[in-house]
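Inputs:
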Amino acid sequence: MSTQVHANLTAEQVAQISEELGEPEWLLETRQDALAALEDLDMPDVIKTPGREWTNLDALDYETLVDPLDHAQEKDRVDAEGVDVLSWSEALDTHGDLIEEHFGSVVDPQRNYLTALSTALFSAGTVVYVPEGVDAEDVKIRTTMNSRSLFNYTLVVAEESSSVTILERQATGDDAKPVDEGRYYSGVVEAVAGENAHVQYGALQNLSEETYNFSVKRGHAGRYGTVNWIEGNIGSRLTKTSVETRLVGDSSESQIVGAFFGHNDQHFDLGSRVWHEAENTTADLVTRGVLRDSARSVYEGVQDVGRDAWNTSSYQRENTLMLSDESEADASPKLIINNHDTEASHSATVGQVDEEDLFYMTSRGIDPEVAKNLLVEGFFVPVLEEVAVDELREDLQDLIAARLRE
Amino acid sequence: MSSDQDHLKETDTEARFEFKKEEKSAFETGKGLTEETIRVISEDKDEPEWMLERRLRALKQFQQMPMPDGWPGAPDLSEVDIDQIVPYIRPDIETRGGADSWEDLPEEIQDTFDKLGIPEAEKNALSGVGAQYESEIVYQNMQEQWEEKGVIFCDMDKAVQEHEEIVKEHFMTKCVPPSDNKFAALHGAVWSGGSFVYVPEDTTVEMPVQAYFRMNSEGMGQFEHTLIIAEENSEVHYIEGCSAPKYSAFNLHSGGVEVFVGEGAHVQYSTVQNWSKNTYNLNTKRAIAEADGTMEWVSGSMGSKATMLYPATILKGPGATDNHITIAFAGEGQNIDTGAKVYHNAPDTKSTIESKSISKDGGRTNYRGLVHIADGAENSSTSVECDALMFDNDSTSDTMPYMEIQEQKVDVAHEATVGKIGDEDVFYLQSRGLDDDDAKQMIVAGFIEPITEELPIEYAVELNRLIELEMEGSLG
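Outputs:
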């Protein structure tokens, strides 16, 4: 695969990144192992039906997109009382053991080619540590990308009976050097929620539309623990994202809420996955998206109920609204059930703005364009209602409204 | 290749007599699959040259194509070794193309069909019954009134001889080309028997046309081909039943079904399959519906060790409709991988898929479906509903739907649920004096009712009876 980047990526470059962050030996080794594994790793799985691959990740010219040593960003981190919100260098100094314990325990660094690349090259990122019993509402991370490529790695560790709400925003800086052939942004988020801990992680991706975006967010929920994800995708040229929770402790829960709005020739490949691995676990997956122009969405939702997951409740809903003939919406909501003591359901719909609703509104004097916009905004309401973080909900609403009025 | 051909020249006629013969069959090929086997089958059937050529081309495709494995949750086909299969057995009947009357059939075959209840159904004045035993249709009958209207119902081999032009145009050309998948290619190479149904314009066949297939020999493959052509504004309901007893070696059933639904025509294809639990059931079934045509698939998949079956409809003309109703039941050691495929390729097309599955005693049921709405298929609508019922924790039930939507003016809905058999329901029925088994049976009967009510009564009864037997665990 000549398009891949490892051909001109060297161990020296990786060592240099590691040195800049003041990393311990074990982390450098993890990076070097990931680098060495690139040779044998495949691209992330994409949905395939006979004769068709729904997202072609091999077509990207990673060699051109990725410059290992050129990374420029602005980072804002707002912490909350009792919570450590740290850059990698700081975190490695103060919480080295904690990081060694958890790094790569949730997202396997060698899961596929792109996660290995992220592990080898990440230079940006944040560690959020929530000690036992601490409740924190307002942790904010804002990443502004100013370089051709940026690799971001976030580790969240919430100890027993703690809770935290984290809000992450990704955007491209106004000062970012113009590029012709695109940018590459990669984000890996690992979240560990201990017993009775609650982690809520909201992310709003609004990268410039020349950006290829790859992201994996994955959480482990311990006994009585909760990992909730909110994922808004507005920007990028192509996004391949997977938001996942493993319910490893009894009575753990997860909610994955997604919203996207594609226009022009944007391509969103979105995955929501939950594994029920213990008893009395609950999951709720809700995604809504709108497509315009020749935008395309590919959605795969998986509810996997393991053999030992007694008394599971698992629900999934996915709805897509299409506003143009050139758009395409593909969906595959899957159920994998190995325990019979399960209540599971999923549903998916694809449709257009309801003609009758539109007629009703225009007949009452509302301008057709305004009426359509109102209906689209209304379509997102059931998902926005699920967004428990006010600020994220308002931001998302604003971005949707802005796109509608373009 | 060339050495094969040389070999053929030398052995052509002798080879036919060297094939293993068994007492009960007049003729069968040896195990395995070579160009020579294909030539022998074709010659035995006295086929025209073009059919032999199609078979040979399909054989080449089969040899080049990969096995359909590697799908998540799909059945393990590693045991399917084509070299262990006897692809063709002609039962010992003097008259080619079947006996003239029921009484002319060998006692043993009569007996088998008696047990399956076929003569009763026939006596009840059904319009037609074709019965296939091993690879050949042995008995076929249709009321004369339909013949007078130009309706043709005969076995596929006979159709090749007597309706050559129609067959040549439609046989594995536009609907199921052998290149579709490895087992469609295999089918194209070795197909034998099956049904040919032709309904002329503006003709309604009021009674269902029926065929029954039974596989009786150990280690054989059955490859019947069904070709249904319903011309403009015609209507026909074809029903097929399949079964096989249990043997220790595996059997392979790889049928092909092609349905042409003309403008405004209406075809219903119903099947209740109960293959023995050593059978691999790998079928390709597809319909093409012209403008305002309606295709309906009703299927019950009961038996088999592994089934891979996804009846497909291409809605080619505006206003065409497709309805799928399927039920799958997987017990111990079974993997039933089934679903539906619909291609909406024209405006105003509609489809509904209703799929129900039951798994028990470690059985595995999968729903694997695809709904494709092409760009330009305006005002199309589709609704998919899957329900799975699981009896115990050894069983597995997965739902893998795919939806590809390239047109905005559509209405697409998918819904699926999985649940265990309701403890409360069982308790309620028990408290009214039913024992546990009866209560569960009743719940299952209620669960599958939407399917059974689409079938003619004798098939609904058969399906219910089969499920009862499965529930009692008394089917071998």
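Remarks. The CA atoms of residues 203 and 234 of chain B lie 5 Å apart. The mean pLDDT of chain B is 79.
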